[in-house]
Amino acid sequence: MSRLILDRPLDRRRLLDISWKASAGAIALSLIPGDDLFAAPALGTNPFTLGVASGDPTPDGIVLWTRLAPDPLVGGGMPARGVGVRWKIATDEAMTKIVKEGKASALPELAHSVHVEVTDLRPRRHYWYQFSYGAEEESPIGHFRTAPAANELVDELRFAAITCQKWDEGHYTVLRDVAAQKLDAVFHLGDYLYEYSPLENVRGMVLDPARFTGETVTLERYRDQYALYKMDADLQAAHHAHPFVVIWDDHEVQNDYSGRFPEYNQTSPQEFVVRRAAGYQAFYEHMPIRAKPQVDKNNHLRIYRSLRYGRSAEFIMLDDRQYRSENPCGDGESARCEGAFDPKVTMLGAGQEAWLQKTLAKSEAEWTFIAQQLLVAELEHDSSPTVDRFWNDAWDGYPGARDRLLGTIVETKVRNPVILTGDWHSTFVNDIKRDFAKDYSKLVATEFVTPAITSGGDGTPYGPYYAPMIPNNQHIRYYDGDRRGYFLMKLVRDRLEAELRMVTNVETPDGTPYKAARFVVESGRPGAYVERI
Hints:
The protein is of the alpha+beta class.
């Protein structure tokens, strides 16, 4: 069990501080002592409309999440007071063999969300969990599997890499397929939410214009937007079936922002950090992440972290958004500028870079997965031998910082580095070279860029644009810009098998999942090769 520590009431003035301090005092929570919360006021309807979720599995624990929202699209519909919920964990799906149970709080300051950190479980075991409210209301039952023991080498790990689930552009058929798989975990690489108005959508759902017109800017609207997404049955099914490990990208706040700077400087940094604080708080409220997130000296919400799966694998989750410098060569696409090589320009921030170096240096895992948001491989846009153009929001806009990243991978001699990337609404399989300017530069890692779940719908916005560039980038081994899907991965001791799964269509609910390609990375040999299906 945990207890709530609330330093002082949350107020709007505190929200004006840079990024996260406004909410930090309200977030170190899980249980308020006292039985008064558990005299649950009657709600008259099911409060578990957004389902349940688990996340960040360890050998002995898990994070459990839910949010009470009997009227999810109108602010949640809960009374303006804290209430209590009960939770339990069992070793059987029927929830008869209870091994852990407790009470937790749901506070209005955090949209009546609940985060419970459970410990003292057994390694690599299947568990089921459930929340309850009052005397009668019970949540759906969720499932998770804990991570292997610290020194265990397992025969097989199975996981999925997913990203980019714009609700209004498609149905979550991909997530239905993810839910049906047998997985140890799902790694969501960002763009869980999009900030744009969902009023016009392919789902045919009619929404209240008073609540969903225009871009998402306020905390109230971010909460409604998350509720809209989380009402989807296929998204809930994926969460109920597997633990998620999540990081954010840009659309959880605003497209292509960099640190404190909005895209194209649409507003002042002072105005933008208020919006960013709202987006970060809503992210926390709707994700199965730790109830006590680490807050650094600058009051940032730290989401970069590392998860161990015994000695078999380590998953390093990075934050490419919060700490980065303003784009040195400007927003959008441009030629590379001298400022991009300035050692002060950073994608990860000095603190995260130092943490990454230490984490990689002490890693003893046979495989190291670096999960992050943006394309690491170089993607030169022009075929002209005298003109180079790059997309500045990706690592191509920060080549000096990328050189430090790749240098760290080489210098720490980390075993079998594999980079998992989201964001691009396309599929790439890339050889990561130490120096992309040299044809025969050493390969240091393999990158898998997972396609979008729905973003882009059934259109072909990226294939026709990027496909002509691929022959000029020989390190790109595979590219597809026109289909939606995800990577289903199986790690055995000496190889990683990455199955690319696509769906026939997402703009109608009758899409069919299928195997599109299969790639293999062998232990000790960076670079993937295509294996016949």
